[in-house]
Amino acid sequence: MTSEGPTPDSAAAKKTGRAGRDLRAAITVGVSLVALVLLSLFWVKDLFGVVAAVALVVAALEIARALGTAGIRVPLPPVLVGGVAMLVVAFYDDMDTAAAVMALTVIATMAWRLRSGSDGFVRDATAGVFLLSYLFLMGTFVMRMLAADDGPWRVVAFILVTIASDIGGYAAGVLFGKHPMAPTISPKKSWEGFAGSLLAGIACGILVVVYALEGPWWAGLLLGVAGVCFATLGDLCESLIKRDLGIKDMGDLLPGHGGLMDRLDSLIAVAPVAYLVMYLLV
């Protein structure tokens, strides 16, 4: 009779949570990203704009590569140049100028694709406009939050509510998840997890709006509810994109998380509604 030692599979299982993440790697990467964001925000807030632009460019490259597996060729040069220009003018000027830059970039994207002929023109040009809207247009709302006098705290509020939604949903889903929310899109997402997201998001929203932004508690409540709902929609939308393309993650840049886009999916969806709530109520 022989005794068996721990196998590589069992050792890996110990490090991986029930939701399928390598928890140690996920926590390490998550803490590092938060530290980078906070350092850039409160040292020189313009530096955060650089961090955001780099993150969105990397995410665009990840999505373009994923779309490439389906034979879709995104006209990346005009999308990336125009997208970054949108972020810059949204921060230093206003959304009217950013909208004009976006319109010019749409034309430039189609013009760039002309060189490859008519085969797949609509498909590829549409993918370029999709990337421009899905990533860089959403990013302009982050830049407008940042441009305010208390911009760093507005960005922190938006990010913390999104993170709280993710953590609350993950914890409640692992502990209590029994009723799938959208089994054909994201089987591990449950209504119990969504309830946990709401509790965590609302609590975080109220605390950060009241104590960091000196706004009314009910604005924090609204920020929490809206943030959780849009974070959930963003996560489901990206899950559906990946299912459509037949891939598990957008990339492998971040150990324990997947690609950078796999961390930005909720944030980009929350950005416009967070901007609107804080612009109108705080």
From TrEMBL:
InterPro entries: PC_trans. It catalyses: a 1,2-diacyl-sn-glycero-3-phosphate + CTP + H(+) = a CDP-1,2-diacyl-sn-glycerol + diphosphate. One of its GO terms (biological process) is CDP-diacylglycerol biosynthetic process. The chain crosses the membrane at residues 23-44, 50-67, 74-92, 98-114, 126-147, 153-173, 194-213, 219-241, 262-281. It is an enzyme of class 2 (transferase). Signal peptide: none annotated. The keyword Isomerase does not apply. Its EC number is 2.7.7.41. GO terms for molecular function: phosphatidate cytidylyltransferase activity. The keyword Phosphoprotein does not apply. It is a multi-pass membrane protein. GO terms for cellular component: plasma membrane. Keywords: Cell membrane, Lipid biosynthesis, Lipid metabolism, Membrane, Nucleotidyltransferase, Phospholipid biosynthesis, Phospholipid metabolism, Transferase, Transmembrane, Transmembrane helix. PROSITE patterns: CDS. It comes from the Bacteria. It is found in: Cell membrane. Pathway: Phospholipid metabolism; CDP-diacylglycerol biosynthesis; CDP-diacylglycerol from sn-glycerol 3-phosphate: step 3/3; Lipid metabolism. Belongs to the CDS family. This is Phosphatidate cytidylyltransferase.
